[in-house]
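Box 3.1 A note on notation
Throughout this textbook, protein chains are presented in two layers. The first layer is the amino acid sequence; the second is a token string describing backbone geometry. Keep the layers aligned when reading.
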Amino acid sequence: MDRKKIAKVIAGSAVKILNRCLHVEANTTSCIAMYQPKAPDALSRFKRK
């Protein structure tokens, strides 16, 4: 195999790996952003009635 073909194969593999990492990271971040922890009961006195 010549150098250009090897470089194409390596570049293609790198793109696939980075796309998979980006997909996983994007889903992980969105799950964390959607998580809403419960507020402590002590904060209930600050709520409007």
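The chain is about 65% helix and 0% strand. The mean pLDDT is 82.
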